[in-house]
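*** Query protein ***
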Amino acid sequence: MSNQERGFATPARADAKVSAAAPGADAVIVLATFNARYAHTALALRCLQANLGSWRGETAIVEFTLEQRPLDALEQVLALRPRIIGLSVYLWNRSHCQAFAEALRQVAPGIRLVLGGPEVSFAPPGDDLVQAADYVIVGEGEQAFATLCGEILAGRAPTPGVVVAPLPQWSALELPYADYTEMDLRQRTVYVEASRGCPFRCAFCLSADEPRVRRLPPARLHAALDTLWRRGARAFKFLDRTFNAHLPTALAHLHYLHALGPEVSALHFEIAPHLVSTPLIAALAAFAPGVVQVEAGVQSLDAEVWQRIGRRGDPARALAGLQRLRQETGVHIHADLIVGLPGEDLAAFGRGFDALMASGAHEIQVGILKRLWGTPLARQAEGWSLVFAAAPPYEVLQTPHLTFQEVMHMRRFARFWDLWGNSGHFTQSLALWWQVVTPFAGFLAFSQWLHGQGVGGAGVSLQRRFELIFSYLTTCTGLAPPAVAEALLRDYLRAGRDDLPPFLRPFLPAGRSLAELRDQLGCPAVRGSKGQARQARHL
């Protein structure tokens, strides 16, 4: 879920990322998209390029970010003089892609525009973005896109419309990893795909209707990763929906990655926590603390909700799996919960949140349920009386069990929890707070207080966050100000700050330097490797 991109991000940049066989030359085919941030790479575009055959050398990948204006992106693409543009469309970049496509139709109608991606593959009839394109490829597009480009460039362009791609045999596809550039390997996330599909049929997920899970033979993937390793790649983010769905394959990948040695800096896997087993624990425990991050798709801890949305398994086993990961390995645990699932009210969500906190998860990503076109949820939304926003990201507005006001409360809760709870900057002060209140009830009240103070979900500096939580804990919770001040000072010193905040000074020993306070309290500044500072603070 989640969203969506986490792990090893570097700061966003405003420049486009262009890779072509001959930099500076015209490109017959341009593959483009808008990534959420500069550190992200579009593996889908590289999969398409890798399978273009003789046209591969005349293809350019051009990646933009959401910070860039669609018209500026279009100008850069048109400067390459393409005959075909392939645009990859997702939930988070739909509005940018639509503005790009509509402007292209106005200024360069002779260029063929091909759309792909989940946001257009299942779009409803009459969708404006689909109408702006010449072709829409539905499904895994490597072979279908190559065939379509060949026909267009040979002067045999088929009638514009939807192209339903047959499911390709993975053995017949070229792998995309050679299309990562040297800059990608130095500065950006290297995504890896070991399987396609998911064994589960969760109603909110696009994988619910996929026929089966297909796995790339480990030896073939490892050969490709060997090449990336020799080129300097040291971090890999696996995109598999459920990395541990097939234990022998998961173990083969983990043993291979561990054998690469201590230079492996970061690994990311999405797992099903109820499938955590002793062999998996042993394989993960072999890595140094903090190297592995797992994203655990919990979504809810209500057994009836799991049954309602078609999720197989047992929430109690999921919690037990997370507890084992925390107690027996050094992995960083990022767990997902979803607000608005059918049949779950605020109290039930809160119980799940508190149970997940007690399991030891380092981060809890609170997401708002989204209606993705093409999912069972989208087809059943009316029957379940779920109301969704009409515009992307199509988030739930109300359900029979959550009022609109409660959903709005939870939207703010999610934003603020990311700043205070998930940031890792407030571990000592939060631990003190949880001694007098349960985490969900306490933080929901805090988020409502922040809203009342006019605090938004962005642009809140770290020092301002310290000031706000100090004010709240000392005026609204009954905690003694000296105890709050000491806990916050420990957090403040761990954050590496070089000053003493005025609101803490009255509670601190007089005449002590920062170095002396750090020594006295045992709070050295926490430093993480590039892109992993947050994980280091948690661990």
Notes: Residues 1-15 have pLDDT under 50 and may be disordered. The CA atoms of residues 303 and 315 lie 6 Å apart. The first helix runs from residue 43 to 50.
